[in-house]
Amino acid sequence: MKAGSWMRGVAVAAGMALLLGACSHGPVRRVSEPSALVQQLTVRADGRWSVDVRIENFSSIPMRFDSYDLVLAFGDNEAGHVTAQPAISIGPESADVVTTVFTPQAAAKLAVADALAGGRSIAYTLSGTITATPDEKKQRSFTVKRGSQLNPAPGLPGVLR
Question: Which domain of life is it from (predicted)?
Fold first, then answer.
């Protein structure tokens, strides 16, 4: 290979590297729909439930989670609305937990009591809206629906995880 063609090859490679570098504007700022799930449900002595809601930020940027209004249901038995205004910031591709206390409806209360008494898991759905503000931008409302199941926590009476 001649010295001149080798130098041209290096110059072309360097030029392409500069061109690619100029096209890059840093990391992609992607806003994805968040998710919510029940991390833990605790039946309190006063009959109300303490529900730990895990909010997951799947975006590549931080988001401030201003509020949520979610309906918790076990099969056809709606337990009620799980609502909060946490106003917490969750980093990119991270999650945090917010605890909400509410009084469940009778049919759902019986379904959960039956699952706890029998040591069985119970399927649930969590659906509604989460309001969040992506990294100092305009506030948005996201529709979420998530189904999963909770299992009795060994050694913790009245607790499902």
Answer: Bacteria
